[in-house]
């Protein structure tokens, strides 16, 4: 469905998406509703990537996933970014998100409270104390 308006690009885009999400390749004929939560999250990202966007906005890509699937989702987001797609992510799992991001913005009551590289924010004592908990960057 993500490539309905550009059928000539189907093969190329499908190859791109199945390189990033290889677990989906053998399930292309399967209905999305019969997939696991993690697989459905992959389908959602894949559908958006089929049109070859320059920017991808992700809202809570790790929500409702098992810890293993969460790690996989973050790794796939990093791969998407490496492939040249600017990725903007809104995510509650701040620690894990900051581990993979180039730039982070920590919001407090809708306002930009802290800005920096992911590494800077992970190591900022104020960010650790207020948003990441006592473990902070030690969990890396």
From TrEMBL:
Signal peptide: none annotated. InterPro entries: ABC_transporter-like_ATP-bd (IPR003439), BCAA_Transport_ATP-bd_LivF (IPR052156), P-loop_NTPase (IPR027417). It comes from the Bacteria. The keyword Protease does not apply. It comes from Agromyces marinus. Belongs to the ABC transporter superfamily. The lineage of its organism: Bacteria, Bacillati, Actinomycetota, Actinomycetes, Micrococcales. This is ABC transporter domain-containing protein. The keyword Transport applies. Keywords: Amino-acid transport, Transport. Residues 27-62 form the ABC transporter domain. SUPFAM superfamilies: P-loop containing nucleoside triphosphate hydrolases. Coiled coil: none annotated.
